[in-house]
UniProtKB/TrEMBL annotation:
Domain of life: Bacteria
Protein's name according to its UniProt entry: FAD-binding dehydrogenase
Segment forming the signal sequence: 1-26
GO molecular function: FAD binding; oxidoreductase activity
Biased composition regions of type Low complexity, renumbered to the chain: 27-44
Gene3D superfamilies in the cross-refs: 3.30.465.10, 3.40.462.20, Uridine Diphospho-n-acetylenolpyruvylglucosamine Reductase, domain 2
Family: Belongs to the oxygen-dependent FAD-linked oxidoreductase family.
Cofactor dependency: FAD
Signal listed as a keyword: yes
Length: 484
């Protein structure tokens, strides 16, 4: 049985099974018509919104469309978390090319909510708009390696991105769950196991093709729509428009990536967390590690990660984690693609409740372990940042948390019978650990002051970008960036 990333972290010392890599089809063209260099701004509409629902019959002549009751509709609306199975989009547009997205946006704009669905991993379920139009990008999933760059369709999943890049000897730092979509990951920043060495996924973005609220297909890059390009690098999925493809610069794939896991004995959590917070910021950027605290009595503790280099070098770095007495250790040296498969796992859907915080400075270990005491089925996962992530100023891209030690995910198993209790328990832990901030790719509908938590001082500029490109909130949702 394949193990999900979070399951893998619970079983430190076991060998994670690799996810199967399959090729995708229905590629967007390598280059598509776009706006001229510079900024061609969509006007703010003073015309009252159109009345009545979209003309689905007319749209169906242009785009493959599913309506409630159609064969395939129930399956198409499903996303990763079964908690959102009860939501009912008014229609699902199965888009295979940018022109399909343009037609769908133009038909529904200012009539009903519009949301893009890439991998379907939105923690808030925002890619399944109740009574709205879901723009399914699964048919735009090509991965086209072009020398040192790669053009990736917005519907591509990470398992396919890694397979194609690994086969070409290239590397793009990204996440670890195999069915996460490249679009949402990039737009929220893109934290992953190679981030300290190579940076965030959004740091490698060269340009993006995007359909904005006026139905135009634009190119966002440093030289074309530069404010929009800035916002797309960490400003969160669902905002500003529907991206149809991304062009990234890549790095040569490392020949060796050594992976490891350490499981510590009961009662070690406070000491290990204290040491981890000192150890990782001083480590070379080739080393990435997390620390995972598992609820229970006592609280469990594991450290897992990887080193871009050979296992001998990794052994040297692990020796600096001063107290490993009694820890169970596993280690292996892999190639780039093998390491990405090691950290991936099951493609099965998972029912859960989660939130996030940011570790901006060393935390009191006792606060975290106390909050988790007795809470079986809940983990606090702290993924290390620093290194290349911190080399970029917080205002240079929309991703704000450049100087943090790590991102913190509070994750609890949940099913329909205990979802309410799990939600309350996550909220209690979030309060108990006493940390601020948040990572928009772990979006939480209950997060207070979420705009500041996700975007910090970048929030003001993001609101201005929304005012320019989506003044009528065509892509508005509960935690969407509104014009300011």
């Amino acid at each position: 049985m394949k193990l999900g990333r979070r399951t893998f972290l619970k079983l430190a010392g076991a060998t994670a099974a690799g996810a199967a890599a399959t090729a995708c089809s229905a590629a967007p063209p390598a280059s598509v018509p776009s706006s001229a260099p510079g900024t061609s701004l969509p006007p703010s509409s003073s015309v009252p919104p159109p009345s009545g629902p979209p003309d689905w019959a007319a749209l169906r002549k242009k785009v493959s469309l599913l309506l409630p009751g159609d064969s395939g509709y129930d399956n198409a609306k499903r996303v990763f978390n079964p908690a959102f199975d009860g939501r009912e989009p008014a229609a699902i547009a199965l888009c295979a090319k940018p022109e399909d997205v343009q037609a769908a946006v133009s038909a529904a704009a200012r009539r009903i909510p519009i949301a893009a669905r890439g991998g379907g991993h939105s923690y808030g379920g925002y890619s399944v708009p109740d009574g709205g139009l879901m723009i399914d990008l699964g048919g735009m999933s090509s991965v086209d390696v072009q020398g040192e760059q790669v053009v990736i369709g917005a519907g591509a999943k990470l398992k396919d991105v890694y397979a194609k890049l690994g086969g070409a000897g290239r590397c793009l730092p990204a996440g670890s769950c195999p069915t996460v979509g490249i679009a949402g990951l990039t737009l929220g920043g893109g934290i992953g196991v190679l981030a300290r060495k190579y940076g965030l996924t959004c740091d490698h973005l060269v340009s993006a093709q995007i359909v904005t609220a006026d139905g135009k297909l634009r190119t966002a890059s440093a030289d074309s729509e530069p404010d929009l390009f800035w916002a797309l690098r960490g400003g969160g999925g669902g905002n500003f428009g529907v991206v149809t493809s991304f062009t990234f610069r890549t790095d040569p794939a490392p020949s060796a990536v050594s992976v490891f896991s350490l499981r510590f004995p009961a009662g070690s959590a406070n000491d290990v967390l204290a040491q981890w917070q000192r150890w990782l910021p001083e480590a070379p950027p080739e080393l990435w590690a997390n620390v995972v605290l598992s609820g229970g009595s006592p609280v469990g503790c594991r450290v897992s990660g990887c080193y871009v280099g050979d296992s001998a070098s990794l052994t040297t770095e692990l020796s600096r984690l001063t107290d490993k007495s009694g820890a169970t250790q596993t280690m292996k040296q892999l190639d780039y693609l093998g390491a990405m498969k090691y950290f991936s796992g099951s493609e099965n859907r998972q029912s859960f409740v989660a939130s996030s915080r940011i570790l901006g400075e060393p935390a009191d270990p006792a606060k975290l372990t106390s909050a988790l005491s007795g809470r079986r089925g809940m983990d606090v996962l702290i993924d290390g940042l620093g290194g290349a992530v911190a080399e970029i100023a917080p205002g240079d891209t929309a991703f704000w948390h450049r100087k943090a030690i790590g991102s913190v995910q509070i994750y609890s198993q949940a099913d329909p019978r205990n979802r309410s209790a799990a939600t309350d328990s996550v909220a209690e832990v979030v309060t108990g650990i006493g940390l601020g901030g948040g990572y928009v790719n772990y979006i939480d509908p209950a997060l207070p002051d979420w705009m500041t938590a996700y975007y910090g001082d970048n929030a003001t500029r993001l609101k201005q970008v929304a005012k320019t490109y989506d003044p009528d909130k065509v892509f508005g949702f509960a935690q969407g960036i509104t014009p300011g």
